[in-house]
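User: Could you go from structure to sequence for me? I need the amino acid at each position, not a summary. Structure tokens:
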């Protein structure tokens, strides 16, 4: 019971000191309101590109004059490789390659297959619209409907029926960012206590070093988790698989608490904490950017621990993933968090010596 009372006393002290720091108290509130505002200001509905890539002979005059009237604009490319790269990079949603001898082959009676390349994230109804555009393109050349077939070639995973609005893609990244804000606050708190000698003074009393780290850990996990959970609750994210998301948020809070220990071990003041913390924030945000802008990064982001927080949260929130589908990623995240917490504790203990 004495141990529990000592830990509770230390937690109360840490929370009180945390919010006595006006800078981080203000940043905590403002960051929460900012992230919440960003979410609600982003479009609720999905906005799809209506630009069609084109490789082939000169477009008919009728098509050039009417381009854009039906919401479809043509982006001309010199070769198919450039067009396909643009589709994969997300610059355009679809593209068509016409052979140079298209008219001769059609008028000779050949049944020709024309490849329409589309992004895997393009809705099925938009693919059908682009196919109709190709048919209109051939009709503008010939003045009649000839024998040809539009073959849809999908680049990347087929996400038809699973398109995601910008703000829903952003939500997992916002959760990571708000976790990191709490990390900076905890790291600053520990660094200040080290500078003032408060932690060494506590160790002279009955408070052992284990009790000290347990109280700091609980404080860090609680502050980080509550902010992130509140963000998901207000945005409606917790309506989908709440128990699973809470487990990921708790593991993520433990991860950033370990990072806070590491930051405080190498920092001398709040300015140093902010500098190192900003670098950590940028690195941990990269997997979130990959969700917001698919194709931005490659498989190397899997070495970042935040990938195992952002990616499964995205799959749960936006794709309806369940425990069997993301349970392995949760385990990896917990292992990452445990290793980083252990490294942070060992590194920070050296400053006590």
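Assistant: Here is the amino acid at each position, in order:
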């Amino acid at each position: 019971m004495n141990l529990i009372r000592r830990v509770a006393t230390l937690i109360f002290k840490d929370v009180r000191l945390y919010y006595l720091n006006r800078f981080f108290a203000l940043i905590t509130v403002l960051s929460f309101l900012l992230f919440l505002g960003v979410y609600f200001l982003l479009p609720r509905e999905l906005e799809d590109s209506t630009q069609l890539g084109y490789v082939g002979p000169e477009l008919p005059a009728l098509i050039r004059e009417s381009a854009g009237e039906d919401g479809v604009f043509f982006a001309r490319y010199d070769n198919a490789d450039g067009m396909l790269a643009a589709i994969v990079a997300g610059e355009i949603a679809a593209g068509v390659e016409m052979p140079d001898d298209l008219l001769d082959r059609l008028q000779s009676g050949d049944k020709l297959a024309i490849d329409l390349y589309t992004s895997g994230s393009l809705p099925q109804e938009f693919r059908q619209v682009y196919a109709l555009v190709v048919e209109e393109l051939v009709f503008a050349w010939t003045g009649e409907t000839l024998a040809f077939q539009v073959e849809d070639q999908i680049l990347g995973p087929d996400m038809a029926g699973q398109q995601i609005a910008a703000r829903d893609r952003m939500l997992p990244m916002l959760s990571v960012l708000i976790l990191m804000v709490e990390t900076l606050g905890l790291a600053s708190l520990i660094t200040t206590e080290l500078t003032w000698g408060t932690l060494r003074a506590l160790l002279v009393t009955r408070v052992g070093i284990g009790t000290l780290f347990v109280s700091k850990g609980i404080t860090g996990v609680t502050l980080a988790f509550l902010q992130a959970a509140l963000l998901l609750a207000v945005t409606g994210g917790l309506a989908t698989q709440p128990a699973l998301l809470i487990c990921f948020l708790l593991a993520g809070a433990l991860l950033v608490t370990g990072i806070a220990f590491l930051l405080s071990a190498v920092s001398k003041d709040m300015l140093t904490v902010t500098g190192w913390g900003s670098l950590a924030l940028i690195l941990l945000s990269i997997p979130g950017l990959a969700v917001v802008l698919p194709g931005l990064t490659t498989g190397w982001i899997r070495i970042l621990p935040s990938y195992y927080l952002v990616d499964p949260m995205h799959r749960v929130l936006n794709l309806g993933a369940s425990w069997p589908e993301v349970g392995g990623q949760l385990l990896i995240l917990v292992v990452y968090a445990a290793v980083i917490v252990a490294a942070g504790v060992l590194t920070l203990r050296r400053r006590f010596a």
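One structural detail worth keeping in mind: The chain is about 65% helix and 10% strand.
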